[in-house]
């Protein structure tokens, strides 16, 4: 039910986790009021169509793979496939059947009002929601995120392809699916589609998977996907698409008859096509033009997350294009909320907490494929491009902890070191279960911990984190 008041201290357009964080931090511990304006589901893309359902779909295959490489367990598992119905049921338990009532209850318990409808700016501190005008006393926050991009390839849009929302909310597993793209969404979706029994063909425009990562990461992930049956076409050009009887059958259901794809002159026939070819900022109808700003583009902000020097207007999360990851958006939401609260209370903004600096070369990320790719900071190529005097230390992950975790463990780790400061500016770990390694690297990077000091951060034995010792030993050996 919409709140009766039309005036709030803070109005947030966009009810995903980023907007929720901004609203919460702006008013907590005070008598200030906040409203979240949301035209879909409170909880946003992450809760229903991205982070939560995708990881729920990925975890079972990870467990099965570990079991198949563990004597005493693999004999019980054998070559049995996943129980697809059970996997999808568990996914549904996390998305609550696309019911956001629990998220609304949380917002209300935090003192945040929920206003249903499409919000757009109509002037300074004013937001129109389906004909109703809301006014903000202190701030308006834009947290509308992004939407899936579908290229204008002949016939592609008419074929009603799947986008990421269909893949994460899958209800019917295609016999053969063509995946367009080679980035995070493409590789993660290919992983769970393979585990559910689909034949997967990846059509990648570039020369590698995960092009923004270290080259060895994309190579190892490609090998792991191929081992599980994926066909990967690199440097491939999708020329046209045709489909028999395309139909809107619902999210995650096969959208019509067979799909014909012409790739570099060769036709491929699949049961479904998934487009994972990037994202577009959801800023086309936010009323930005009423403030002299451009609609439909990423929204530039400063480190306070303010838009174009407007002290009352903020943009956080994917819509500003700085670091399009849920955890980074939530971080920005916390910073913006703190800034709003401080300004409302007349406090100084001198503290580091009031500036978003982590998305300047300190961004952590984990990609969940048959091998996890956990990274933070700069790749070697990006560091060299920034003029850093780079030193590289790399090692295969072959320590007691990894051999105990499972048989046939395979992984690799690399540090990018700034010689001038003797600190880490980038780190990448690839292998089963390496996601938990990246936070130590993040702390070292953000804290500018020297390699000499890291020598005294002793990893516990026997854990996979012992790879830190091996990397530091390799560095010592190189120095001598």
UniProtKB/TrEMBL annotation:
The enzyme's E.C. designation: 1.-.-.-
Record flagged with keyword Nucleus: no
Cofactor: FAD
Domain (FAD/NAD(P)-binding): residue spans on this chain: 8-333
Ranges annotated as spanning the membrane: none
Domain spans labelled Pyridine nucleotide-disulphide oxidoreductase dimerisation: 363-468
Family, similarity comment: Belongs to the class-I pyridine nucleotide-disulfide oxidoreductase family.
Protein name per its UniProtKB record: NAD(P)/FAD-dependent oxidoreductase
Organism: Rhodococcus navarretei
């Amino acid at each position: 039910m919409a709140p009766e008041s039309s005036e709030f201290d803070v109005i947030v357009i966009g009810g995903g986790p980023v907007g929720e964080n901004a609203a919460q931090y702006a008013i907590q511990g005070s008598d200030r009021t906040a409203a979240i304006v949301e035209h879909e589901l409170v909880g946003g893309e992450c809760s229903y169509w991205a982070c939560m359902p995708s990881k729920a779909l990925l975890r079972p295959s990870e467990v099965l793979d570990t079991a198949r490489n563990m004597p005493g367990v693999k004999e019980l598992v054998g070559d049995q496939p996943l129980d697809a119905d059970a996997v999808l049921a568990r996914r549904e338990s996390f998305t609550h059947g696309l019911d956001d009532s629990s998220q609304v209850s949380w917002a209300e318990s935090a003192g945040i009002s929920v206003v249903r409808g499409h919000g757009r700016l109509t002037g300074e501190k004013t937001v129109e929601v389906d004909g109703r005008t809301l006014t903000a006393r202190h701030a308006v926050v834009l947290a509308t995120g992004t939407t899936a991009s579908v290229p204008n390839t002949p016939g592609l849009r008419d074929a009603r392809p799947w986008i990421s929302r269909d893949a994460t909310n899958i209800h019917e597993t295609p016999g053969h699916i063509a995946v367009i793209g080679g980035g995070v969404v493409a590789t993660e979706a290919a992983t769970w589609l393979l585990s559910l029994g689909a034949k997967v063909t990846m059509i990648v425009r570039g020369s590698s998977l995960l092009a923004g990562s270290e080259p060895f990461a994309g190579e190892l992930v490609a090998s792991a996907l191929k081992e599980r049956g994926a066909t990967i076409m690199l440097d491939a050009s999708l020329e046209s698409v045709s489909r028999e009887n395309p139909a809107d059958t619902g999210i995650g259901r096969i959208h019509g008859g067979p799909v014909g794809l012409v790739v570099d002159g060769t036709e491929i026939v699949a049961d479904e096509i998934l487009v994972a070819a990037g994202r577009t900022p959801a800023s086309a109808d936010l009323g930005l033009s009423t403030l002299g700003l451009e609609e439909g583009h990423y929204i530039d902000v400063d480190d306070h997350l303010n838009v174009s020097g407007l002290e009352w207007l903020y943009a956080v999360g994917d819509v500003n294009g700085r670091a399009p990851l849920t955890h980074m958006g939530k971080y920005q939401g916390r910073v913006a909320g703190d800034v709003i609260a401080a300004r409302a209370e007349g406090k100084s903004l001198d503290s580091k907490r009031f500036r978003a600096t982590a998305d300047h070369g300190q961004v952590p990320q984990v990609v969940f494929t048959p091998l996890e790719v956990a990274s933070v900071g700069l790749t070697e190529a990006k560091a060299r491009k920034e003029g850093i005097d780079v030193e590289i230390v790399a090692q295969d992950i072959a320590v007691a902890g990894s051999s105990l975790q499972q048989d046939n463990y395979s992984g690799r780790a690399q540090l990018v070191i700034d010689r001038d400061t003797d600190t880490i500016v980038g780190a990448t770990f690839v292998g089963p279960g390496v996601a938990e390694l990246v936070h130590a690297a993040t702390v070292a990077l953000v804290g500018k911990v020297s390699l000499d000091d890291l020598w005294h951060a002793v990893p516990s034995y026997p854990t996979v984190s012992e790879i830190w010792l091996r990397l530091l030993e390799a560095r010592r050996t190189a120095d001598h």
